[in-house]
Design a protein that fits this description.
Number of helices: 3
Low-confidence stretches: 1-30
Structural class: mainly beta
Distance between the termini: 120 Å
Mean pLDDT: 86
Number of strands: 22
Radius of gyration: 33 Å
Helix content: 10-25%
Number of domains: 2
Largest sheet: 8 strands, antiparallel
Strand content: 35-45%
Order of helices and strands: HEEEEEEEEEHEEEEEEEEEEEEEH
């Protein structure tokens, strides 16, 4: 019994001694201490797309860097973690303005090739990384470069100049069209016929160049760009490269430029079966020194193949 009491007493004293030593221990935190240069910046997944599709010739995009402390302006060093193809140009820093919680990293890839796909990982430089960040210290994006498809000779029927200057609205102009599939639908582009004097006609009788140019064109390539989405077809504003004494003419869709009223100024329509894009009345404008004027008389057509154009003539 005495031995048991001795053992119990010894155990109790040991516990009290341990507790006493523990109370005197100076606690200096759990885990690794934050470095003085840590920025508190991070990549927030919901603020960035992990996959992007880019148009060839315009390969640039932004990645957003976030931070928690917004009190002061701040510059954070950025590094390239991985770029196996070596095509990306990434700035070495990202700057936060005072009071702002995001900064933009603008990335370009001027040497990226059509139809190719690339991966890029960017990160916060080691000296600015925070071990207690609320988000990622590096971010990876998959970049796909779209590829233009050559549709060959297509046929543009002008309803723009023909309304205001008595030009025959049935004349067709042969244009070389390219097509680009994108997330919203597709994009078409071609060099407009107006700025070049006509050099003849093709086998379907369409003009190559513009017969009414008479030396008034600037002989420069003016790229007509049409976006086709579920909403309709949109012709981007473009110079026509021709001046008949009223200033250089330009055209484009009215919707989104002069008005947002789609009921009054509609987008164009795309008929996939017929292979034609139609810009109806009140959808396009003609602009010169007198200002923009609405095309109210003649529609404009783009037939996306010789077959589509020939079928339109048969239907007439």
């Amino acid at each position: 019994m005495k031995n048991l009491l001795k053992y119990t007493f010894a155990t109790l004293m040991g516990a009290l001694l341990f507790a006493s030593c523990t109370n005197e221990y100076e606690y200096d935190g759990v885990g690794q201490a934050e470095q003085n240069t840590a920025s508190g910046a991070y990549f927030l997944g919901s603020a960035n797309k992990s996959s992007v599709e880019l148009e060839p010739g315009s390969v640039e995009f932004d990645i957003t860097l976030s931070r928690t402390n917004t009190e002061n302006a701040q510059t954070v060093n950025i590094k390239v973690v991985s770029d196996e193809a070596g095509v990306f140009e990434v700035p070495s820093t990202a700057s936060f303005a005072a009071g702002e919680n995001t900064a933009t990293i603008h990335i370009t890839a001027p040497n990226a090739k059509e139809g190719e796909e690339y991966d890029l990982t960017v990160g916060i430089a080691d000296e600015h990384q925070s071990i207690y960040s609320v988000g990622m210290q590096a971010f990876t994006v998959h970049v796909a470069i779209q590829k233009w498809e050559n549709l060959g000779t297509c046929y543009w029927i002008d309803g723009i100049i023909s309304q205001f200057y008595g030009v025959n609205p049935s004349f067709a102009y042969a244009v070389q069209v390219q097509k680009l599939i994108n997330a919203d639908g597709f994009r078409l582009r071609f060099v407009g016929p107006y700025s070049f004097a006509a050099t003849g006609r093709d086998e379907l009788g369409a003009f190559i160049g513009y017969p009414y140019n008479a030396g008034s064109g600037d002989e420069q390539e003016h790229l007509f760009v049409i976006d086709v989405t579920k909403a309709g077809a949109y012709l981007h504003p473009v110079s026509m490269g021709i001046d008949w004494g009223y200033g250089t003419m330009s055209t484009g869709s009215i919707y989104g430029n002069l008005s947002n009223n789609a009921a009054t100024y509609p987008l164009g329509t795309y008929d996939e079966k017929a292979g034609v894009i139609t810009f109806p009345l009140n959808s396009l404008y003609l602009n010169d020194d007198d200002g923009p004027a609405v095309v109210k008389k003649n529609p404009t057509y783009l037939y996306l193949s010789a077959e589509a154009y020939i079928n339109s003539l048969t239907e007439e």
